[in-house]
Automatic annotation (TrEMBL), chains A, C:
The lineage of its organism: Bacteria, Bacillati, Bacillota, Clostridia, Peptostreptococcales. It holds the Pfam family Dak1. Homodimer. The dihydroxyacetone kinase complex is composed of a homodimer of DhaM, a homodimer of DhaK and the subunit DhaL. Gene3D superfamilies: Dihydroxyacetone kinase, domain 1, Dihydroxyacetone kinase, domain 2. It comes from the Bacteria. PANTHER family: TRIOKINASE/FMN CYCLASE, TRIOKINASE_FMN CYCLASE. Its EC number is 2.7.1.121. This is phosphoenolpyruvate--glycerone phosphotransferase. It catalyses: dihydroxyacetone + phosphoenolpyruvate = dihydroxyacetone phosphate + pyruvate. GO terms for biological process: glycerol catabolic process. Transmembrane segments: none annotated. GO terms for cellular component: cytosol. It comes from Anaerosolibacter carboniphilus. InterPro entries: DhaK_1 (IPR012736), DhaK_dom (IPR004006), Dihydroxyacetone_Kinase (IPR050861). The keyword Kinase applies.
From TrEMBL, chains B, D:
The lineage of its organism: Bacteria, Bacillati, Bacillota, Clostridia, Peptostreptococcales. Residues 4-204 form the DhaL domain. SMART domains: Dak2. This is phosphoenolpyruvate--glycerone phosphotransferase. It comes from Anaerosolibacter carboniphilus. Keywords: Glycerol metabolism, Kinase, Transferase. One of its GO terms (molecular function) is glycerone kinase activity. InterPro entries: DhaK_L_YcgS, DhaL_dom, DhaL_dom_sf, Dihydroxyacetone_Kinase. It comes from the Bacteria. GO terms for biological process: glycerol catabolic process. Homodimer. The dihydroxyacetone kinase complex is composed of a homodimer of DhaM, a homodimer of DhaK and the subunit DhaL.
Length: 331, 210, 331, 210
């Protein structure tokens, strides 16, 4: 395990300290909790957004705390959902009186822990609503199961619901917008290498020099299948096809998130984006905006995911709204 | 089971989790995200620290303290689930200094109901329930059939073990392993495995103590 | 070699296509040249900034083309300085009548190729000035040699000189500000893994599981020495000490760039930044602003560099000015 | 050397660079950034394409065409340096259909001066100059001493080869290898090596042709 860390058990706390040292104008940490909230929060009368999950997905989620996106982010242990008390603490700290929306990724652990936090908040009469992101099209037959995972598409929910809240929408409205975004976004990912959870000390799986893992999540879990490495165009085409098969994007305008999993150079993400654009162009799907970079990562994993969000006028306006956070700034 | 025995059982679980943490993590790497052992160990280390402060309390308080420690330190799926299980268990014996056999059946039942209510899984979903439910059934049946604690314990453990084995044969419908689809077949469920080890710790302490 | 690419020889062109597809609001590509310029450029009457170098350093340099930073970026082959004709083409395309400043990193190849381009521009009566960035303190005894390398600190020059140009300063003034920034910035880097130039197909060097390379550049070159991996705090302390030994920062305000080399997760960069902050704090050096992320990379190399820029009022104001580019946006 | 021989020489260099591109790159990986072979090969592939269009032109035009191709396709340090060298060489024989021995000395001298002017390196900096300068001296001296072309060629090549060997013994002061400090000792310079191979290609064609 080659990592620049001090103690495997201390990575989350030390990281959060580093974030606060780097971005005091944006965030502060709640004393005793692995929770980042806006430096100048809570914002009175504004619906607050809290997201989070296991750590290892940086800049998600703390990097998106700031004007126009999140109000609080809860950092669990690496790849492990944060505990209810941490989430509850975040909720209390960010509530500006207009209620709190929890943005949860669809993992059993996240759902249970956030749910328990919501129950706690309820007991203290804080208005809490929640939405569950499940954008990953890799898992197909999910009717009787946990359902689809939430992966990089989640960033669109942060951006759009964040803008809705900033605009002054009430909790129901912000939730409606978040749910519309969730309904409209699909993602799929792949990887060339595993990643190593610091406390585990060994890679999450083994891949041969010519193999890749397809349809995988963001926690080092294996994917739906393994394949020989293809060209960037073939890989990208596979991911995009799966997404387009899953929802009808025809005639629509979309936003694209070409997301790196942490260890993939931007060069490769742009090469992949070239193919995403050309497929969408062929299909007559208009790209309104594209984001390329590391938004929802899996530690040092080399790999990428594509997310495509179908836009309507409302989503477009909210997506285009100003945002100012450590990891996402838009004029 | 006296309060002291309960304390011993919990201390034994702390040890067993620590000893098997790599094993649980390896199992979770195969079909999950490779943190099950890390999670449980973090949780039971916290439990250990808390235990000394409730040494003189009733069984209910002790179990609730375990529950709260787990809930606030484990995270992931197993944290709320085991936490809920211990919470429900504690409620059954609130104020009691001793746990009777009848209590134990009630505890087991309530704990499982708690896990089901929280996680919405059922038998055959390849989760801890696949160890716990058969174990509970065996335990209850043994007593209904008038068997000794020793025999009942052995049958309970055997059933839990078979449950773990059974998880190898099925694909997961719940938890992270679910996303693997058919690829999860052939691997035993980490949570079922940790459940088995906890049950075994209880039996070990009780038989040593006897 | 595990990469998401199509043909090793096509990576630069395909990447640039992907960039343009992703960010048409910011950049366009000069037909037939590997040059990105502002979508709405040239800006009349403004001094234009051109930078560039080998590819593989993304988001440098194309990612910094936009308002408040660069006007043009020239992309050579991977880790290979672009040729003079490419640079010349960029100069012609961005000149808005107020002259062009070339920001060159101190490598023999870059200097020669950019110099030849400047000679060409001279012949066409375009006013061209140039500055050479040499922020890497790793190389010590450099009096009779090529001198120090330019590494991540270059991004500060893009930002600050870019803001100066945007403010309307003339070519001499922009050059003065760029040179002041160069004089005030020091950097040093290290890595845990090599990287693989696509066309070479094999890693640039070999490192054992417990080794790291210290004092290395951004082209996969080996560093000044090899060492056993230390903790993040020890590694960071070494880099920062080297920088602080080299220039007197006492009593001053600084900006910090905690730069990832491409394959290092943000988590580790933040853990390192925690240590950077604490050392600076101990020394009574005040951090005005910190940037953490992948700014000047070395393909998929796992590693990091620290850059520390000493600020005065002028530099501070220019650093804080608005910028809007694909990879760096500041409100 | 006739124009046709010059064309053959250039074609041979194209082949030699292609054949040795991995070797040059490996040398550059050890002490540089691992692109020297890739760079030169890209450049000489471009040269090859351009050559057909100047087949009937004078030696000066041919050499300038090579220079322009290298300058606009190689990049890095070696692009401007080799490009400048061929440019200066071309200037010496502008308009000429043949290259005399005297021309060759002048070409060699001018090419080296061009490299020095562009790159500001000198002998002992561990660059291509460490092969080229001794080779030039040997070539010039041989003629001054009235030796045959064959002998002069062998002495020139031998001197270039010794120059390459010499680069192993010194630390670099110029180019990327410079940043390695003492670590560059023991490795031969990629540019000196490619220079040696180019000189060898010239000699090979000329002796085959004889
Ligand atoms: N819905 C559920 N009901 C019961 N048990 C579950 C459920 N989901 C997961 N589990 C159990 O939790 C175990 C995984 O725990 P752990 O690895 O600690 O959490 P996570 O999956 O969040 O990483 C699984 O092996 C399974 O036994
Ligand atoms: N200033 C210089 N003068 C002469 N030759 C040089 C100089 N700098 C570098 N070289 C030569 O260039 C070679 C490296 O070329 P190449 O790898 O193509 O370029 P780069 O160093 O830009 O990657 C070195 O081996 C050396 O022989
Ligand atoms: Mg987990
Ligand atoms: Mg797990
Ligand atoms: Mg190079
Ligand atoms: Mg080189």
């Amino acid at each position: 395990m080659k990592k620049m860390i001090n103690h495997p058990e201390a990575v989350v706390e030390e990281m959060l300290e580093g974030v606060v040292k780097a971005h005091p104008q944006y965030v502060r940490k709640l004393e005793g909790f692995n929770v980042l909230v806006r430096a100048n929060g809570p914002v009175n009368g504004k619906v607050a957004l809290v997201s989070g999950g296991g750590s290892g997905h940086e800049p998600s989620h703390g990097g998106f705390v700031g004007r126009g996106m999140l109000d609080g982010a809860v950092a669990g242990a690496v790849f492990t959902s944060p505990t209810p008390d941490q989430v509850f603490e975040a909720v209390k700290a960010v509530d500006g009186g207009a209620g709190v929306l929890l943005v949860i990724k669809n993992y059993t652990g996240d759902i249970m822990n956030f749910e328990m936090a919501a129950e706690m908040a309820d007991m203290e009469n804080i208005k809490v609503a929640s939405v569950v992101v499940n954008d990953d099209v890799a898992v197909e037959n999910s009717t009787w199961t946990t359902g689809r995972r939430g992966i990089a598409g989640t960033v669109f929910i942060h951006k759009i619901a964040g803008a809705a809240a900033e605009k002054g929408m009430n909790l129901d409205e912000v939730k409606r917008v978040a749910e519309k975004t969730i309904a409209n976004v699909r993602s799929m990912g792949m990887s060339l290498t595993p990643c190593t959870v610091p406390a585990a000390g060994k890679p999450s799986f083994e891949l041969a020099e010519n193999e890749m893992e397809v349809g995988l999540g963001i926690h080092g879990e294996p994917g739906t299948h393994r394949d020989v490495i293809k060209t960037a165009d073939e890989i990208t085409a596979h991911l995009v096809e799966k997404i387009l098969e899953d929802m009808d994007y025809s005639q629509s305008e979309v936003a694209v998130l070409m997301n790196g999993l942490g260890g993939t150079p931007l060069m490769e993400l742009y090469i992949m984006n070239r193919k995403v654009s050309s497929i969408l162009e062929e299909r007559g799907i208009k790209v309104h905006k594209t984001f390329v970079g590391n938004f929802m990562t899996s530690l040092e994993m080399a790999g990428a995911s594509v997310s495509i969000l179908k836009l309507d006028e409302e989503l477009k306006e909210l997506l285009d709204a100003t945002a100012d956070t450590p990891a996402f700034t838009q004029l | 089971m006296t309060r002291d025995q309960l304390m011993k059982v919990l201390e034994e679980i702390v040890v067993v989790v620590e000893e098997n943490k790599e094993f649980f993590t390896d199992l979770d790497q195969a079909i999950g995200d490779g943190d099950h052992g890390i999670n449980l160990n973090r949780g039971f280390k916290a439990v250990k620290e808390k235990l000394s402060s409730v040494r003189d309390k009733d069984c209910g308080t002790i179990l609730k303290t375990v529950a709260m420690s787990l809930i606030s330190t484990v995270g992931g799926a197993s944290g709320p689930l085991y936490g809920t299980a211990f919470m429900k268990a504690g409620a059954v014996v609130a104020g009691k200094e001793e746990i009777t056999v009848e209590d134990s059946i009630k505890i087991f039942d309530e704990a499982i109901q708690g896990i089901i209510a929280r996680g919405k899984a059922s038998c055959g979903d390849k989760t801890m329930l696949d160890a716990l439910i058969p174990a509970f059934e065996a335990w209850k049946t043994a007593f209904e059939e008038g068997e000794s604690i020793e025999d009942a314990s052995q049958k309970m453990l055997e059933a839990a073990y078979q449950g773990v084995e059974y998880t190898k044969t099925i694909a997961a419908n719940k938890g992270r392993a679910n996303y693997l689809g058919e690829r999860s077949i052939g691997h035993q469920d980490p949570g079922a495995t940790s459940s088995y080890f906890m049950l075994k710790a209880i039996v070990d302490v009780m038989t040593k103590g006897a």
